[in-house]
Specification:
CATH superfamily of the largest domain: ATPase, nucleotide binding domain
Strand order of the largest sheet: 5-4-3-6-10
Number of domains: 3
Number of strands: 17
Order of helices and strands: HHHEEEEEHEEEEHEHEEEEEHHHHEHHEH
CATH topology of the largest domain: Nucleotidyltransferase, domain 5
CATH architecture of the largest domain: 2-Layer Sandwich
Amino acid sequence: MTPTSAARQSTLRSSNLALVLRTVCAGGPLSRADVAVRTGTTRATAARLVDDLVAGRLLDEGERLTPPRRGRPATPLLPGARVGALGLQVDAGLLAARVLDLRGRVVAEHVEDDDLVGSDPARTLARLGALTADLVAGLPAGLRLAGAGLALPGLVDGDLLLRAPNLGWTDVPAPDLLAAQLPGGLRPVVGNEADLAARTVADTAPGRPGPLRDFLYLSGQIGIGGAAVLGGRVLTGSAGWAGEVGHVCVDPDGPACRCGSTGCLEQYAGRHALLAAAGLPLDTPPAEVVARAGELPVRRALDAAADALGVALAGVVNVLDLPVVVLGGHLAALADVLRPGLEELLGRRVLSARWRRPTVLAVTGPPAAGATGAALQALDAVVADPVAWLP
């Protein structure tokens, strides 16, 4: 065999391994025969590829299923439970560390609420490192971490957090400050918090697409993050900075924003801004806001938030033609009281609303969706190139 043909064989094997793993992740549990049919390979080839992935713990064999007719019981295949990834997040109101496995299950997590506005980056990341070290020390024996990601609420350029207005951080080399405290030489890949949180809607597990493929995601925290998703992929823009919906101006004469502009969306719909306008303490939970929605100051604050959201989101929908708006974070918890006014405004302001009015959905789940998305991103890399993780 010549070097060229050997290289081609190696590339073909890598592609086929990725195809098989992706097929099981997307549609499992499947038998070896099912894999052969869905991938268009022979049974012998599919079986050989599956055996390699099982040996590398990227696939697990479940208990054999009794067939409806006579014959050999099929062995169901599942994404590996002993391969996981670490997702981390720093936001203005929390620190989080979470480990997911290839099935998309949370293996372990730790979330700490805190006010981190104006915090020292090195000290805060050291806290996150210590929290992560404790979490990793308690992981099940035999679990292999294949990667790590870090979600941050701001503009990211490679390993550098350029600016996070709500944290007050600028030019922070976050992986350098974290890497020494992570196990096994893991170095986290940094991403924008809203972009990573949007992945939890686009994909329900590594390699498994969710029901929504085109949508605008809003991450409601102290500020407002955003991400546009087309065909299941986050639209990052030329430099990775797309989606900053929270800093879309809804009133040039509005209040000053930490970003340096005025009248930004998050000055009306961000959690702290909304609570301040309602005359409520900044630690008031969303459920209490909903319960007090009939009180005049609270109602006015909610109406102002819905109006600002309608103005900003209509502009984005008109430009990108997205059929669904997904509310996350505190906006999801307030969806029932925000939705009527928001949908009414979108119906008036979106050019195509007569034929397809945008749908407003709420996604509730555990806090720190960015940490989950960071882990999903690391696991997606395994699904895309499994040969790198085989013996």
